[in-house]
Design goal:
heterodimer; A: mainly alpha; 4 helices; 2% strand; B: mainly alpha; two-stranded antiparallel ribbon; 3 strands; globular
Chain lengths: 126, 275
Protein backbone atom coordinates (compact mmCIF):
# COMPACT_ATOMS: atom_id res chain seq x y z
CA UNK A 1 0.00 0.00 0.00
CA UNK A 2 1.32 3.45 -0.91
CA UNK A 3 1.77 6.08 1.82
CA UNK A 4 -1.03 8.29 0.41
CA UNK A 5 -3.46 5.34 0.29
CA UNK A 6 -2.56 4.45 3.87
CA UNK A 7 -3.16 8.05 4.97
CA UNK A 8 -6.56 8.07 3.26
CA UNK A 9 -7.50 4.76 4.90
CA UNK A 10 -6.41 6.05 8.33
CA UNK A 11 -8.48 9.21 7.80
CA UNK A 12 -11.53 7.10 6.84
CA UNK A 13 -11.13 5.00 9.98
CA UNK A 14 -10.95 8.17 12.10
CA UNK A 15 -14.16 9.38 10.45
CA UNK A 16 -15.78 6.01 11.14
CA UNK A 17 -14.71 6.00 14.80
CA UNK A 18 -16.07 9.54 15.23
CA UNK A 19 -19.38 8.58 13.59
CA UNK A 20 -19.72 5.45 15.78
CA UNK A 21 -19.20 7.54 18.94
CA UNK A 22 -21.73 10.17 17.87
CA UNK A 23 -24.22 7.59 16.55
CA UNK A 24 -23.95 5.60 19.79
CA UNK A 25 -24.75 8.62 21.95
CA UNK A 26 -27.64 9.72 19.70
CA UNK A 27 -29.18 6.22 19.65
CA UNK A 28 -28.75 5.96 23.42
CA UNK A 29 -30.56 9.29 23.86
CA UNK A 30 -33.44 8.15 21.63
CA UNK A 31 -33.93 4.88 23.56
CA UNK A 32 -33.60 6.51 27.00
CA UNK A 33 -35.95 9.36 26.05
CA UNK A 34 -38.53 6.93 24.65
CA UNK A 35 -38.36 4.78 27.80
CA UNK A 36 -38.55 7.88 30.02
CA UNK A 37 -41.59 9.36 28.24
CA UNK A 38 -43.38 6.00 28.13
CA UNK A 39 -42.81 5.55 31.86
CA UNK A 40 -44.10 9.08 32.55
CA UNK A 41 -47.26 8.26 30.59
CA UNK A 42 -47.78 5.03 32.53
CA UNK A 43 -47.23 6.63 35.90
CA UNK A 44 -44.23 7.03 38.12
CA UNK A 45 -42.73 4.06 39.99
CA UNK A 46 -41.50 5.31 43.35
CA UNK A 47 -39.32 2.31 44.23
CA UNK A 48 -35.81 2.09 42.78
CA UNK A 49 -35.14 -0.78 40.36
CA UNK A 50 -31.50 -1.83 40.63
CA UNK A 51 -29.87 -3.60 37.71
CA UNK A 52 -27.49 -6.33 38.85
CA UNK A 53 -26.12 -7.93 35.74
CA UNK A 54 -23.31 -8.03 33.20
CA UNK A 55 -23.21 -6.16 29.91
CA UNK A 56 -23.78 -9.44 28.02
CA UNK A 57 -26.73 -10.47 30.21
CA UNK A 58 -28.22 -6.96 29.90
CA UNK A 59 -28.24 -7.28 26.11
CA UNK A 60 -29.45 -10.90 26.12
CA UNK A 61 -32.33 -10.03 28.46
CA UNK A 62 -33.35 -6.93 26.52
CA UNK A 63 -33.23 -8.67 23.14
CA UNK A 64 -35.28 -11.58 24.51
CA UNK A 65 -37.95 -9.08 25.59
CA UNK A 66 -37.93 -7.53 22.10
CA UNK A 67 -38.21 -11.02 20.52
CA UNK A 68 -41.21 -11.81 22.70
CA UNK A 69 -42.73 -8.44 21.81
CA UNK A 70 -42.73 -7.46 25.48
CA UNK A 71 -41.43 -3.98 24.79
CA UNK A 72 -41.94 -1.49 27.62
CA UNK A 73 -40.24 1.47 29.29
CA UNK A 74 -37.89 -0.82 31.20
CA UNK A 75 -36.72 -2.65 28.07
CA UNK A 76 -36.14 0.64 26.25
CA UNK A 77 -34.09 1.99 29.17
CA UNK A 78 -32.04 -1.22 29.32
CA UNK A 79 -31.45 -1.06 25.56
CA UNK A 80 -30.36 2.57 25.98
CA UNK A 81 -27.91 1.59 28.71
CA UNK A 82 -26.69 -1.36 26.61
CA UNK A 83 -26.09 0.95 23.64
CA UNK A 84 -24.27 3.49 25.81
CA UNK A 85 -21.92 0.85 27.23
CA UNK A 86 -21.43 -0.60 23.74
CA UNK A 87 -20.34 2.76 22.28
CA UNK A 88 -16.77 3.04 23.71
CA UNK A 89 -16.43 -0.77 23.49
CA UNK A 90 -17.17 -0.64 19.74
CA UNK A 91 -14.67 2.21 19.43
CA UNK A 92 -11.96 -0.03 20.91
CA UNK A 93 -12.87 -2.86 18.47
CA UNK A 94 -12.65 -0.41 15.56
CA UNK A 95 -9.30 0.84 16.90
CA UNK A 96 -7.89 -2.70 16.60
CA UNK A 97 -8.74 -2.63 12.87
CA UNK A 98 -7.47 0.96 12.60
CA UNK A 99 -4.00 -0.04 13.83
CA UNK A 100 -3.94 -3.48 12.12
CA UNK A 101 -5.39 -2.58 8.72
CA UNK A 102 -4.99 1.18 8.18
CA UNK A 103 -1.80 1.89 10.12
CA UNK A 104 -0.25 -1.64 9.90
CA UNK A 105 1.23 -0.96 13.31
CA UNK A 106 1.52 -4.27 15.19
CA UNK A 107 2.83 -2.67 18.38
CA UNK A 108 -0.38 -0.65 18.77
CA UNK A 109 -2.55 -3.50 17.52
CA UNK A 110 -1.35 -5.55 20.51
CA UNK A 111 -1.75 -2.63 22.93
CA UNK A 112 -5.35 -2.17 21.70
CA UNK A 113 -5.99 -5.92 21.90
CA UNK A 114 -4.92 -5.81 25.56
CA UNK A 115 -7.49 -3.05 26.24
CA UNK A 116 -10.15 -5.00 24.32
CA UNK A 117 -9.43 -8.25 26.20
CA UNK A 118 -9.54 -6.52 29.59
CA UNK A 119 -12.84 -4.80 28.78
CA UNK A 120 -14.34 -7.99 27.30
CA UNK A 121 -13.55 -9.93 30.48
CA UNK A 122 -15.16 -7.29 32.70
CA UNK A 123 -18.18 -6.74 30.46
CA UNK A 124 -18.97 -10.34 29.60
CA UNK A 125 -17.54 -12.70 32.21
CA UNK A 126 -17.13 -10.89 35.47
CA UNK B 1 -37.41 12.85 43.94
CA UNK B 2 -39.45 13.19 40.73
CA UNK B 3 -38.00 12.42 37.31
CA UNK B 4 -38.63 15.97 36.11
CA UNK B 5 -36.69 17.39 39.05
CA UNK B 6 -33.84 14.90 38.43
CA UNK B 7 -33.72 15.95 34.77
CA UNK B 8 -33.54 19.66 35.68
CA UNK B 9 -30.91 19.05 38.34
CA UNK B 10 -28.78 17.04 35.89
CA UNK B 11 -29.23 19.74 33.24
CA UNK B 12 -27.81 22.34 35.63
CA UNK B 13 -25.00 19.96 36.68
CA UNK B 14 -24.08 19.32 33.02
CA UNK B 15 -24.14 23.05 32.28
CA UNK B 16 -21.98 24.06 35.27
CA UNK B 17 -19.63 21.10 34.58
CA UNK B 18 -19.13 22.23 30.98
CA UNK B 19 -18.71 25.91 31.92
CA UNK B 20 -16.09 25.12 34.54
CA UNK B 21 -14.36 22.43 32.45
CA UNK B 22 -14.60 19.84 35.23
CA UNK B 23 -17.52 17.72 33.99
CA UNK B 24 -21.06 17.24 35.25
CA UNK B 25 -20.30 14.58 37.88
CA UNK B 26 -18.57 17.03 40.21
CA UNK B 27 -21.84 18.95 40.62
CA UNK B 28 -24.28 16.07 40.18
CA UNK B 29 -22.92 13.83 42.97
CA UNK B 30 -22.92 16.49 45.74
CA UNK B 31 -26.43 17.59 44.65
CA UNK B 32 -27.89 14.07 44.59
CA UNK B 33 -26.40 13.17 47.97
CA UNK B 34 -27.65 16.47 49.41
CA UNK B 35 -31.16 15.41 48.36
CA UNK B 36 -30.78 12.10 50.16
CA UNK B 37 -29.46 9.66 47.56
CA UNK B 38 -26.79 7.25 48.91
CA UNK B 39 -23.39 8.34 47.57
CA UNK B 40 -22.61 4.95 45.98
CA UNK B 41 -25.76 5.09 43.84
CA UNK B 42 -25.00 8.70 42.88
CA UNK B 43 -21.45 7.70 41.87
CA UNK B 44 -22.71 4.75 39.79
CA UNK B 45 -25.24 6.76 37.77
CA UNK B 46 -22.80 9.65 37.36
CA UNK B 47 -20.18 7.31 35.88
CA UNK B 48 -22.70 6.10 33.30
CA UNK B 49 -23.42 9.71 32.32
CA UNK B 50 -19.66 10.32 31.98
CA UNK B 51 -19.59 7.71 29.16
CA UNK B 52 -22.27 9.69 27.30
CA UNK B 53 -20.67 13.15 27.58
CA UNK B 54 -17.18 11.81 26.81
CA UNK B 55 -18.29 9.87 23.72
CA UNK B 56 -20.31 12.82 22.43
CA UNK B 57 -17.47 15.30 22.64
CA UNK B 58 -14.75 12.84 21.56
CA UNK B 59 -16.62 12.07 18.32
CA UNK B 60 -15.93 15.50 16.81
CA UNK B 61 -12.28 15.63 17.89
CA UNK B 62 -11.46 12.17 16.45
CA UNK B 63 -13.02 13.14 13.11
CA UNK B 64 -11.02 16.40 13.11
CA UNK B 65 -7.82 14.39 13.61
CA UNK B 66 -6.74 16.32 16.73
CA UNK B 67 -7.02 13.34 19.10
CA UNK B 68 -3.87 11.22 19.23
CA UNK B 69 -5.19 7.64 19.05
CA UNK B 70 -1.77 6.13 19.86
CA UNK B 71 -1.41 8.15 23.07
CA UNK B 72 -5.03 7.36 23.90
CA UNK B 73 -4.70 3.59 23.46
CA UNK B 74 -1.40 3.41 25.34
CA UNK B 75 -2.80 5.31 28.34
CA UNK B 76 -6.10 3.41 28.32
CA UNK B 77 -4.14 0.27 29.26
CA UNK B 78 -3.49 1.97 32.60
CA UNK B 79 -6.72 3.92 33.18
CA UNK B 80 -9.01 0.88 32.71
CA UNK B 81 -7.06 -1.06 35.35
CA UNK B 82 -7.39 1.98 37.67
CA UNK B 83 -11.09 2.32 36.81
CA UNK B 84 -11.85 -1.24 37.93
CA UNK B 85 -9.74 -0.89 41.11
CA UNK B 86 -11.43 2.43 41.96
CA UNK B 87 -14.97 1.08 41.46
CA UNK B 88 -14.19 -2.06 43.50
CA UNK B 89 -12.82 0.17 46.28
CA UNK B 90 -15.94 2.35 46.24
CA UNK B 91 -18.14 -0.71 46.74
CA UNK B 92 -16.31 -1.68 49.94
CA UNK B 93 -15.34 1.75 51.35
CA UNK B 94 -17.42 3.42 54.05
CA UNK B 95 -19.59 6.17 52.53
CA UNK B 96 -18.15 8.94 54.72
CA UNK B 97 -14.68 8.28 53.27
CA UNK B 98 -16.14 8.63 49.79
CA UNK B 99 -17.42 12.10 50.74
CA UNK B 100 -13.99 13.13 52.04
CA UNK B 101 -12.05 11.71 49.07
CA UNK B 102 -14.58 13.29 46.67
CA UNK B 103 -14.17 16.71 48.27
CA UNK B 104 -10.38 16.42 48.27
CA UNK B 105 -10.34 15.30 44.60
CA UNK B 106 -12.61 18.19 43.67
CA UNK B 107 -10.27 20.70 45.32
CA UNK B 108 -7.23 19.05 43.68
CA UNK B 109 -8.93 19.21 40.23
CA UNK B 110 -9.70 22.84 40.90
CA UNK B 111 -6.03 23.51 41.75
CA UNK B 112 -4.94 21.57 38.64
CA UNK B 113 -7.14 23.74 36.40
CA UNK B 114 -5.80 26.90 38.01
CA UNK B 115 -2.21 25.70 37.80
CA UNK B 116 -2.25 25.25 34.04
CA UNK B 117 -4.24 28.38 33.11
CA UNK B 118 -1.25 30.41 31.93
CA UNK B 119 1.18 27.69 30.87
CA UNK B 120 2.53 27.98 27.34
CA UNK B 121 3.17 24.65 25.65
CA UNK B 122 6.70 23.66 24.61
CA UNK B 123 7.44 20.50 22.63
CA UNK B 124 9.68 17.88 24.27
CA UNK B 125 13.22 18.34 22.93
CA UNK B 126 14.73 14.99 23.86
CA UNK B 127 12.05 12.35 24.37
CA UNK B 128 13.15 9.29 26.37
CA UNK B 129 13.84 5.93 24.72
CA UNK B 130 10.54 4.28 25.72
CA UNK B 131 8.50 7.21 24.37
CA UNK B 132 10.48 7.10 21.11
CA UNK B 133 9.79 3.35 20.89
CA UNK B 134 6.08 4.06 21.39
CA UNK B 135 6.26 6.69 18.64
CA UNK B 136 4.14 9.30 20.39
CA UNK B 137 4.57 11.82 17.59
CA UNK B 138 1.72 13.67 15.98
CA UNK B 139 0.57 16.80 14.22
CA UNK B 140 -2.64 18.75 13.72
CA UNK B 141 -3.75 21.95 12.03
CA UNK B 142 -4.43 24.67 14.59
CA UNK B 143 -7.17 26.89 13.15
CA UNK B 144 -6.66 29.69 15.67
CA UNK B 145 -2.94 29.97 14.89
CA UNK B 146 -3.32 29.09 11.21
CA UNK B 147 -0.43 26.61 11.26
CA UNK B 148 0.31 22.91 11.61
CA UNK B 149 1.58 21.99 15.07
CA UNK B 150 3.93 19.01 15.30
CA UNK B 151 4.80 17.44 18.63
CA UNK B 152 6.46 14.48 20.30
CA UNK B 153 5.27 13.06 23.61
CA UNK B 154 7.74 12.06 26.31
CA UNK B 155 7.85 10.41 29.78
CA UNK B 156 5.41 7.69 28.67
CA UNK B 157 6.25 5.38 31.58
CA UNK B 158 5.48 8.06 34.18
CA UNK B 159 2.38 9.06 32.25
CA UNK B 160 1.15 5.46 32.35
CA UNK B 161 1.80 5.00 36.08
CA UNK B 162 0.06 8.28 36.95
CA UNK B 163 -2.87 7.36 34.71
CA UNK B 164 -3.59 4.35 36.96
CA UNK B 165 -4.20 6.92 39.72
CA UNK B 166 -6.47 9.01 37.47
CA UNK B 167 -8.39 5.82 36.58
CA UNK B 168 -8.79 4.93 40.28
CA UNK B 169 -10.24 8.40 40.99
CA UNK B 170 -12.66 8.06 38.07
CA UNK B 171 -13.93 4.62 39.15
CA UNK B 172 -13.96 5.52 42.85
CA UNK B 173 -15.78 8.84 42.56
CA UNK B 174 -17.86 8.50 39.38
CA UNK B 175 -16.21 11.44 37.62
CA UNK B 176 -14.19 11.73 34.42
CA UNK B 177 -11.13 13.01 36.31
CA UNK B 178 -10.33 14.96 33.15
CA UNK B 179 -8.45 17.69 35.01
CA UNK B 180 -5.93 15.11 36.26
CA UNK B 181 -5.63 13.40 32.89
CA UNK B 182 -5.04 16.70 31.08
CA UNK B 183 -2.46 17.69 33.69
CA UNK B 184 -0.56 14.40 33.14
CA UNK B 185 -0.66 14.94 29.36
CA UNK B 186 0.47 18.57 29.65
CA UNK B 187 3.04 18.57 32.41
CA UNK B 188 4.44 15.02 32.33
CA UNK B 189 4.09 13.99 28.69
CA UNK B 190 4.50 17.49 27.15
CA UNK B 191 1.59 17.24 24.75
CA UNK B 192 -0.01 20.40 23.30
CA UNK B 193 -3.10 21.56 25.22
CA UNK B 194 -5.56 20.78 22.40
CA UNK B 195 -4.18 17.25 22.02
CA UNK B 196 -4.24 16.80 25.82
CA UNK B 197 -7.87 17.85 26.14
CA UNK B 198 -9.19 15.90 23.16
CA UNK B 199 -7.22 12.71 23.92
CA UNK B 200 -8.33 12.92 27.56
CA UNK B 201 -11.94 13.06 26.35
CA UNK B 202 -11.43 9.82 24.45
CA UNK B 203 -9.78 8.06 27.39
CA UNK B 204 -12.47 9.15 29.87
CA UNK B 205 -15.20 7.13 28.10
CA UNK B 206 -13.35 3.80 28.18
CA UNK B 207 -12.15 4.41 31.77
CA UNK B 208 -15.74 5.11 32.88
CA UNK B 209 -16.88 1.98 31.03
CA UNK B 210 -14.49 -0.22 33.04
CA UNK B 211 -15.78 1.25 36.32
CA UNK B 212 -19.44 1.17 35.24
CA UNK B 213 -19.13 -2.58 34.53
CA UNK B 214 -18.25 -3.08 38.23
CA UNK B 215 -21.18 -0.95 39.46
CA UNK B 216 -23.55 -2.81 37.11
CA UNK B 217 -22.35 -6.15 38.46
CA UNK B 218 -22.76 -4.94 42.05
CA UNK B 219 -26.36 -3.79 41.47
CA UNK B 220 -25.79 -0.10 42.14
CA UNK B 221 -27.33 1.33 38.95
CA UNK B 222 -30.96 2.37 39.45
CA UNK B 223 -32.93 1.95 36.22
CA UNK B 224 -35.57 4.49 37.31
CA UNK B 225 -33.21 7.47 37.46
CA UNK B 226 -30.94 6.54 34.55
CA UNK B 227 -32.82 8.27 31.72
CA UNK B 228 -33.53 11.67 33.35
CA UNK B 229 -29.95 11.94 34.66
CA UNK B 230 -28.09 10.86 31.50
CA UNK B 231 -30.34 12.96 29.25
CA UNK B 232 -30.15 15.95 31.59
CA UNK B 233 -26.35 15.83 31.83
CA UNK B 234 -26.02 15.47 28.05
CA UNK B 235 -28.35 18.41 27.38
CA UNK B 236 -26.65 20.57 30.03
CA UNK B 237 -23.17 19.80 28.67
CA UNK B 238 -24.34 20.59 25.13
CA UNK B 239 -25.74 23.98 26.15
CA UNK B 240 -22.75 24.74 28.41
CA UNK B 241 -20.16 24.01 25.71
CA UNK B 242 -21.94 26.27 23.22
CA UNK B 243 -22.36 29.04 25.79
CA UNK B 244 -18.69 28.83 26.75
CA UNK B 245 -17.58 29.34 23.13
CA UNK B 246 -19.49 32.65 23.01
CA UNK B 247 -18.17 33.96 26.32
CA UNK B 248 -14.82 35.66 26.26
CA UNK B 249 -14.92 36.80 29.84
CA UNK B 250 -12.69 34.64 32.07
CA UNK B 251 -14.56 35.93 35.13
CA UNK B 252 -17.48 33.64 34.30
CA UNK B 253 -15.24 30.58 34.39
CA UNK B 254 -13.61 31.75 37.61
CA UNK B 255 -17.08 32.15 39.13
CA UNK B 256 -17.97 28.54 38.30
CA UNK B 257 -14.61 27.32 39.61
CA UNK B 258 -15.30 29.16 42.88
CA UNK B 259 -18.68 27.39 43.14
CA UNK B 260 -16.90 24.04 42.72
CA UNK B 261 -14.33 24.91 45.38
CA UNK B 262 -17.17 25.57 47.84
CA UNK B 263 -18.75 22.24 46.87
CA UNK B 264 -15.44 20.45 47.54
CA UNK B 265 -15.12 21.95 51.02
CA UNK B 266 -18.78 21.18 51.74
CA UNK B 267 -18.33 17.48 50.78
CA UNK B 268 -15.29 17.15 53.08
CA UNK B 269 -17.22 18.72 55.96
CA UNK B 270 -20.19 16.37 55.38
CA UNK B 271 -17.89 13.34 55.32
CA UNK B 272 -16.11 14.54 58.45
CA UNK B 273 -19.44 14.93 60.27
CA UNK B 274 -20.45 11.40 59.21
CA UNK B 275 -22.44 12.39 56.06
Amino acid sequence: MEASDQKTLSHRFEQLIGCVLLGGVLLTSVFLAAGFLWQQKRGVIEEPVFLQTTFAALWAGSLAMVRHRALGPSTLTKLGLGLLLATPYTRVILSVFYFAVAERNWKYTFITLFVLTFLTYHLFFR
Amino acid sequence: MSSDALFLLSLVAGFVGAMSGMGGGVVLIPALTYLGMPIKQAIAVSLVSVIATSSGSASAYVRDGITNLKVGMFLEMFTIVGGVIGAALAVFLDSRWLFIVFGAALLASWAALFERRNDAWQSAQNPDRFSRWLDLRGSYFDQARGETITYQGTNAAWGGILMVGAGILSGLLGIGAGAFKVLIHDVVMKLPTKVSTTTSNLIIGVTALSGAAVYLGEGLIDEQILAPIVLGILAGAFIGTRTLVRLRNRTVRIFFLAVLAILGVEMIVRGWKGA
